[in-house]
Amino acid sequence: MGILQRVRRTSSNWVRTSRIRPQRIIAALCLACACALVVWALTPNEAGTAVVVAKTDLAPGSELDAGDLALTDFPPDLVPDKAFSSIAEVEGRHISAGLSEGSPLTESIVLDQQALPEGSRDLLMPIRLADDASAALLQPGQRIRLFSSLPDGGSEVVVEKVTIARLVDKPEGIAAESGQLVSVILSAEDAGRVAEFAGLPISFAILPR
After folding, report:
1. What is the pLDDT of residue 166?
2. Which residues of the chain register pLDDT less than 70?
3. What are the CA-CA distances from residue 104 to residues 55, 68, 96, 98, 110 (Å)?
4. What pLDDT score was predicted for residue 171?
5. What's the 3-state SS for the chain?
6. What is the C-alpha separation between 176 and 128, in angstroms, rounded?
């Protein structure tokens, strides 16, 4: 084989190689992009949602102070229904039930003090009404009479008149409790009376305006 033929064959091979190389590079880039997209799609979102929690154990009726509260990141799927995300939203308000350290604060626990007129001596108290269907008729501002079914039969008037302050939205799912939770405005004496019937079914009648 002559020198000229060798030069021509070498040049021809170089041209073919130079034509294939860009194609291989592009294919490799496409494969890398595809792999990156798959990894991105399969990587779970680690970002949490800030939820207000109790920094220490709190007794029922406690007034919430910023020093008693903290923000903790919850996985998005585990954020409680109607949870608070800002300490300023709950500071200075009271809770209707005791909380243990780390427990999240929700609208069903924090009483709506704004429902009481300034200077009022009345109280806000959470009550769970037994009949879900009838509770759908209730609205804030309505006055109702509370009854309780007694263990040995019959019923008894618990409180002659209370005012509905707020209906608490029920969480969805099989873990949701039966009965409608409401907060009512009542006197300290009537609140003590309601407490005597704790654990018993509470029903109601709507009073005329």
Report:
1. 80
2. 1-47, 60-61, 96-97, 108, 111-119, 169-177
3. 10, 12, 13, 12, 11
4. 55
5. CCHHHHHHHHHHHHHHHHHHHHHHHHHHHHHHHHHHHHHHHHCCCCCCEEEEEECCCECCCCECCHHHEEEEEECHHHCCCCECCCHHHHCCCEECCCECCCCECECCCECCHHHCCCCCCCEEEEEEECCHHHHCCCCCCCEEEEEEECCCCCEEEEEEEEEEEEECCCCCCCCCCCCEEEEEEECHHHHHHHHCCCCCCEEEEECCC
6. 13
Retrieve residue 190's tokens: 């009537």
- pLDDT in the model for residue 179: 79
Domain that holds residue 33: 1-43
Q: Which amino acid is at 182?
A: V
Cα–Cα distance list, 206 to 48, 57, 173 (Å) = 43, 37, 29
Distances in Å between the Cα of 66 and the Cα atoms of 63, 87, 88, 89, 187 are 10, 7, 8, 10, 28
What's the confidence (pLDDT) of residue 174?
Answer: 41
Residues 102 and 131 placed together within one structural domain of the fold: no
- Say whether both 134 and 175 belong to one domain: yes
- Whose CA is closest to 190, among 176, 202, 173, 178? 202
Number of folded domains that form the chain? 3
